[in-house]
Amino acid sequence: MTHTLHRLGDAKSLKEDYVVLIARAQGFYAPGRVGLSRKFPRLYSMIKKTAEKLGIIKTLGIGGGFGVTVLNNKDQLTSYLKKLKERKRKAGVSIVVSGLFDEVNDCLNKLDLSPHTVLFSLGYFGKIELLPRKEVLEITTMCGHHMISPRLVEKLASDMKDEKITSGEAVRLMARQCVCGAFNKARACKLIEAV
Amino acid sequence: MRINLEKCIACTECVPYCPAGAIIPTGNKFMVDEDRCVECYACLRAEICPVNALEKVPLDWPRILRHAFSSVRAVHESLGIYGGRGSEGMNTNDMTGRFRHGEAGFIVDVGRPGVGTTFEDIEKISMAVAKVGVEFEQMNPITKLMADKTIGRLRDDIKMERIRSCELEFKAKETKVLPIIDTLKEVSKVVNTVFSVGCISRCKPDGTIPIKTVLDEAGIFYRPNCKTNIGLGCPLAP
Q1: What is the ipTM metric for this complex?
Q2: Where are the domains of chain B?
Q3: What is the model's pTM?
Q4: Domain B1-57 class?
Q5: Which residues of B touch A145 (CB under 8 A)?
Q6: What are the average pLDDT values for consecutive 10-residue runs of chain A, which has 195 residues?
Q7: Which residues of B touch A121 (CB under 8 A)?
Q8: Residue ranges of domains in chain A, CATH in brackets
Q9: SS3 sequence, B172-188?
């Protein structure tokens, strides 16, 4: 889930894009602490219900010990983190937020929380001339594993202009290629209009 | 992957779905360029072929590494690493204490965003940063593929394999942050791909982020969006 770090976009667009990751530490489930491992599915189930009650877009299953929630604004993020803080149990779960640092920090301050560890993106190095154009990259970087091909984005944008498909259909076809579920469909709907 | 030429009707539906651009024309049909294909199976997952002409092929060593590093759902069974392309990194640092005060972590996503890479290029980066004096993450598949971790050299038999991306993970003392960034800038001139760089900092109790100060003072660019571990995990380590 490192990849959610490198989502490209301007501040206005990124204000509508937050990814909350819950992760369990392998060491927490070492032999002798087996009882705690049973708590992770229960905790994840609780988190999923919390997200659903708050009307949050998407949550992913617990495969690999990770759960992902995609949020569209700071108010959603604050409500979600507040619930997670209230319901948090000693179940070996860390919570990580990807998004604009100042906005995330503002949420944390409101909840009397503070950053424990921060991962900064220093950007792209190397042959950046190999990258697709910025408008396409803003969409493809939301699928961190880059399973959404730039050619697919260009084709679907072209099909939209020819009125063969709607933006919603285009985004649905892109989103199903993103296996980890970190793709923000609402933001993509806005971005594809600019491609 | 391969395309069964007896089934292919040259409808071109699959072409834009390949993230590696490996589906190319051959005569009046289409084929998979074996060198470019990273065995990610994105074409197959799209379920776009109307005649089911896309077929998996058996993968032997070292080609199987393409799938292990490029398919989101693949696991590195032979390397003993399950789930993800790297370690938990900073995601669980509030529990594991992987990155301590006074240390800086780096995650170099080689091949990202969306370009792909070979192990030959990955080795150029790992050997360059090894010279600065870094500690490679043990629970990382690239580290497991190193023939000599002290100099960051990879196994010879995998060098030409192409993958979608990988994470090179390492940490060092905070004082080495700037030399490491300088090294990454230098090696970026000799690789045939792109890489994305992430830098990890353990925050101080007063909320100060030491690496942010280092980057600000050196005038080094970093994006306004980042990943923040909010410290709700209960510590396994002090």
Answers
A1: 0.93
A2: 1-57, 83-218
A3: 0.92
A4: alpha beta
A5: 72, 164-165
A6: 84 94 65 47 65 58 66 91 74 85 96 95 97 96 91 97 96 91 92 92
A7: 196-198, 222-223, 225-226
A8: 2-110 (3.30.70.1150), 128-194 (no CATH)
A9: EEHHHHHHHHHHHHHHC
